[in-house]
User: Which sequence fits this backbone?
């Protein structure tokens, strides 16, 4: 491998998933475990507020200056999928301000089952589901569930209370992901947090070796906004104009 192929910038790690599955909590968990040994920064995407950034600042897991919100407006997925400029600028600013930065974590706005990051923005992505969303949700599939670098089934502690067989949910996750990793996680389960930390460290090692290839889980499915407009990213692959019917 030529030396020039070995990246010198921070690894950008995306965390996506439906509303309330625990993305901010997961990022806080990662920061809590790694901020002593690595230089970390966080970009959050919120529709109209800076709620996620405020939560993370309040969690006290990182210097608040290292956490920056991006306000995405009405269509949050555009900012992580079609026009990633505002997120890239936020990540690059953090890298410059706190150089050297090892990992910039980027949280997507709370969104539906199909939101995935563009590989132009993140090097590695985690898709987060939670047990409280129901045991069936894994089988429903979608690009993030099937092809993100890691699928997290979060809040495993809630399984008995919502009548979900967590082991089965994880097994079915492995089936739809053709062997890609699936991790059951709970903030009450220290072993699961250690496994998550190790996955992040392994990803960083792979990224730094120059062997990691950022994977595009695929475009978002067409979806309808509250005002009735249809938003389709069907042709949003690089080099193709994307359909954006607002
Ligand atoms: N029982 C349990 N609850 C959790 C766990 N992790 C997070 N939660 C709770 O789940 C709720 C949502 O967590 P957040 O981290 O805000 O989720 P989010 O995905 O960032 O939410 P949005 O940004 O609104 O989409 C909060 O009430 C958390 O306290 C867990 O491991 N177990």
Assistant:
């Amino acid at each position: 491998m030529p030396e020039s192929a070995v990246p010198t910038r921070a690894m950008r790690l995306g965390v996506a998933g439906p509303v309330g599955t625990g993305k901010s909590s997961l990022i806080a968990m990662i920061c809590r475990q790694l901020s002593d040994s690595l230089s970390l920064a966080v970009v959050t995407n919120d529709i109209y507020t800076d709620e996620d950034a405020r939560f993370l600042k309040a969690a006290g897991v990182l210097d608040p200056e290292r956490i920056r919100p991006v306000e995405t407006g009405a269509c949050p997925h555009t900012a992580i999928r079609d026009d990633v400029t505002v997120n890239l600028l936020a990540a690059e600013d953090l890298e410059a301000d706190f150089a050297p930065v090892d990992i910039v974590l980027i949280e997507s706005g709370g969104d539906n089952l199909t939101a995935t990051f563009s590989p132009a923005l993140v090097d590695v992505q985690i898709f987060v589901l939670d047990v409280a969303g129901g045991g069936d949700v894994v089988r429903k599939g979608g690009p993030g569930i099937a092809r993100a670098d890691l699928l997290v089934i979060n809040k495993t502690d809630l399984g008995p209370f919502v009548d979900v067989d967590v082991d089965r949910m994880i097994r079915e996750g492995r089936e739809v992901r053709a062997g890609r990793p699936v991790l059951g996680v709970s903030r009450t389960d220290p072993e699961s947090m250690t496994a998550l930390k190790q996955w992040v460290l392994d990803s960083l090692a792979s990224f730094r070796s120059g062997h990691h290839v950022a994977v595009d889980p695929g475009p978002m499915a067409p979806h309808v906004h509250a005002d009735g407009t249809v938003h389709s990213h069907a042709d949003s692959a690089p080099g193709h104009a994307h359909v954006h019917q607002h």
